[in-house]
Amino acid sequence: MSQTFTITVLPGDGIGPEVIEQAIHVLKAVEKLEDVTFTFEYARLGGCAIDEDGTPLPEETLEKARRSDAVLLGAVGGPKWDNNPAHLRPETGLLGIRKALGLYANLRPAFMLDCMVEVSALKEEVVRGVDLMVIRELTGGLYFGEKKRYKTENGEVASDELIYHEYEIERIVRRAFEVARLRGKKLTSVDKANVLESSRLWRKVVDRVAHDYPDVELRHQLVDSCAMELLRWPKQFDTIVTENMFGDILSDEASMLTGSIGMLPSASLADGNFGLYEPVHGSAPDIAGKGIANPTATILSAAMMLKYSFGMERAANAVEKAVHKVLNSGVRTADIAKSKEEAVSTKEMADKIIAAMHE
Amino acid sequence: MSQTFTITVLPGDGIGPEVIEQAIHVLKAVEKLEDVTFTFEYARLGGCAIDEDGTPLPEETLEKARRSDAVLLGAVGGPKWDNNPAHLRPETGLLGIRKALGLYANLRPAFMLDCMVEVSALKEEVVRGVDLMVIRELTGGLYFGEKKRYKTENGEVASDELIYHEYEIERIVRRAFEVARLRGKKLTSVDKANVLESSRLWRKVVDRVAHDYPDVELRHQLVDSCAMELLRWPKQFDTIVTENMFGDILSDEASMLTGSIGMLPSASLADGNFGLYEPVHGSAPDIAGKGIANPTATILSAAMMLKYSFGMERAANAVEKAVHKVLNSGVRTADIAKSKEEAVSTKEMADKIIAAMHE
Ligand SMILES: CC(C)[C@H](C(=O)O)[C@@H](O)C(=O)O
Ligand SMILES: CC(C)[C@H](C(=O)O)[C@@H](O)C(=O)O
């Protein structure tokens, strides 16, 4: 019996539509290889939604997403909306959809392919073989705590609350242990327990949940120390779990270790199988419309969707393998090409990946 | 007429006393070269104070510090006190003295000496010539905002408040512009203004203060982007200013770019000339008492004291130059020695620096 999955597609802004188009080609290739049918439902998020619907997150988009099995997002944002008030900014749509769909678990793999080591700012011996996963809490903490702004006799005051409920910590930590168990069985929990009360609760919950995962080696690390160690010797890390703001910073630092964020995917998961998948890179307005963006990150995001939302591990591996094969063979888009090499277009890169899937 | 300065010396824990001893030898050498007299007043902070006085920050220490012109600190902490309750932990003493003495401006230089490039995890072309300064707000934000911890029917809740008053932002930003003006005249202000209310106020104040420094080029950058850019191309940065928690993370990341935190000093300044000076590295309990710790960071911290608290620019430069000369000549303590080189002791390193000052 053939399976059917509905995917809400949010091309977004800038290079978003271009890279999404190619990821969809790859998914259509998967349909031919596996007994599966995908239905694509297009909707708007971010700048294009502000222009078209007057809000970065239209209700219709949320409704479509809720009726679907997963969401595939390109990228949002651009200079056009940069000076808008907060409620009319693209990233407000992104934060809104995370919260509305309960996407609390952000999975950010950072891996170094052998054929790409020269792109990194780090020495070859430091980055060769790096393969880590940052798991960031995505719907709590400073991002969603109470914000205040008021005037006093001595000028203005502004505040944000970093707040965590035990259950919010517990669910992300469990997810992280589950992921670590399927990877290198080493989990680093990052906090600032020597200063923050929320970190002390975080650490307590981690220690409690750890009892259910005796096969996973657990380490606590302070966020400042982690920021150092990530770049001193990244290979010491397997899976990292941390709260929202620390995760924002550390996952980006970890991405940049590889030197090629044009290749890194992400998943933002809710309870159950539902998730939103998007490349780590932004909307890159400077190269939008030129057909030269690197579609790899979005294609690998689609592979994460196959794995985490649809349980199609084999197809996910096939896509990943095809990507590695094409990169190994020296095919490069402009962002990762050495100056003298010839760079391929967005479409050519995807075509080569699809061809490799059929080999 | 000879000048006299009183220095409160806090050797602290672990390797603290060893590196402090050598920094004091260097200061005594300065006394011989310049028309100045230093009076050293010893006091306790951190673990040694917990053991001796039952508190990490004895009142007597604060009184001595207040009566002096500057404070020189070794390092605090160690496994012995790691499981103590918060009020009996060494770092509580550190946070306490920062707040009590109004040390709101933390200056953290990160520089790459040519002769040290091989120690870095980054490629030579990326780090050669790196010379940046992270200026971290040190007495506000999440560190000192209200903390809560309570139980509900659904488990525990914990929170920390990230709060900034306009005047707190203004004074650190002014300081940063002043520092940038004496450096490369480029200031990067780091925040998360697309998410945090406190960052929006931060950015507003920065833009206002910037009018008084038209000669300094200002850029705003988001913290996640800065964490990436620091390791992609650190030479784009000259002076960075940011709030307390972001500064904790980014200053440590910036330090590690150089690969040798055994060499990096710091200054924590109050209004006026008063400051506390300490190496960036910790108390390194594993090598304490062996006489092999690198005293360079503490010696360079003493040089910052000469410059920022005593206005002795020439003497500060002499110390810095002597340090560079000795390192250039290949002298290495164990932490920065290549395996086959012979490492010198803490005392030998300081002796060589003092000898170079007299050349
Ligand atoms: C755009 C911004 C609000 C967002 C975040 O901080 O979460 C982005 O940096 C990310 O990591 O997805
Ligand atoms: C020990 C700790 C509380 C402290 C901080 O976070 O400020 C340290 O990391 C530092 O940077 O001086």
From TrEMBL, chains A, B:
GO biological process: L-leucine biosynthetic process
Subcellular location: Cytoplasm
InterPro entries assigned: IsoCit/isopropylmalate_DH_CS, IsoPropMal-DH-like_dom, Isopropylmalate_DH
Annotated positions for site Important for catalysis: 143, 192
Cofactor(s) the record lists: Mn(2+); Mg(2+)
Tagged with keyword Cell inner membrane: no
EC number from the UniProt entry: 1.1.1.85
Binding site for substrate: 98, 108, 136, 224
A Pfam family hit: Iso_dh
Residues annotated as domain Isopropylmalate dehydrogenase-like: 6-353
Key words, A-Z: Amino-acid biosynthesis, Branched-chain amino acid biosynthesis, Cytoplasm, Leucine biosynthesis, Magnesium, Manganese, Metal-binding, NAD, Oxidoreductase
Reaction(s) catalysed (UniProt annotation): (2R,3S)-3-isopropylmalate + NAD(+) = 4-methyl-2-oxopentanoate + CO2 + NADH
Binding site for Mg(2+): 224, 248, 252
Pathway: Amino-acid biosynthesis; L-leucine biosynthesis; L-leucine from 3-methyl-2-oxobutanoate: step 3/4
Binding site for NAD(+): 78-91, 282-294
Superkingdom: Bacteria
Gene Ontology CC terms: cytosol
GO molecular function, one term: magnesium ion binding
Cofactor detail note: Binds 1 Mg(2+) or Mn(2+) ion per subunit.
Subunit structure: Homodimer.
Family assignment from sequence similarity: Belongs to the isocitrate and isopropylmalate dehydrogenases family. LeuB type 1 subfamily.
PANTHER family per record: 3-ISOPROPYLMALATE DEHYDROGENASE
Function summary: Catalyzes the oxidation of 3-carboxy-2-hydroxy-4-methylpentanoate (3-isopropylmalate) to 3-carboxy-4-methyl-2-oxopentanoate. The product decarboxylates to 4-methyl-2 oxopentanoate.
UniProt name for this protein: 3-isopropylmalate dehydrogenase
